[in-house]
Inverse folding.
């Protein structure tokens, strides 16, 4: 199956949502109970933003500015959920190397439990504002670039 060609809109979406991921991770790390142990969460969220922006927002360009704003918010929400999942997976893998789980099912359930515990840090004005405003701005920028350079 032929792969679609990269476009300027996909590149702009990747860059925009990398920035959104970075800012989102900064606000998230401020609300974490163990903020000093955040580690490379900002860089990871930016990398997830590149992939999600390219694949989700990049494919939603060309439907108008209102649709782009909605797609940008959708992309930012997906970015937050995927980044939270990857954070929980990383924590589970670190714990599994330390032999803290009895079996594989306990490790899988630990990912869900960790996501539930870590999602409380998402409940802040900074995180919601970043998802809302960052998603809208990223979507509008991607749509604008898509209209200018085809």
């Amino acid at each position: 199956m032929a792969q679609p060609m990269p476009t300027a809109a996909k590149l702009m979406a990747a860059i925009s949502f990398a920035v959104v991921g970075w800012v989102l991770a900064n606000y998230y790390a401020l609300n974490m109970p163990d903020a000093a142990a955040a580690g490379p969460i900002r860089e990871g969220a930016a990398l997830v933003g590149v992939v999600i922006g390219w694949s989700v927002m990049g494919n939603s360009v060309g439907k108008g500015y209102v649709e782009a704003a909605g797609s940008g918010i959708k992309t930012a929400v997906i970015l937050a959920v995927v980044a939270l999942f990857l954070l929980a997976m990383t924590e589970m893998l670190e714990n599994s190397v330390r032999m803290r789980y009895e079996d594989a099912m306990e490790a899988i359930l630990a990912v869900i439990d960790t996501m539930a515990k870590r999602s409380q840090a998402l409940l802040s004005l900074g995180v919601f504002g970043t998802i809302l405003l960052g998603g809208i701005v990223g979507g509008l920028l991607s749509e604008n670039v898509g209209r200018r350079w085809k």
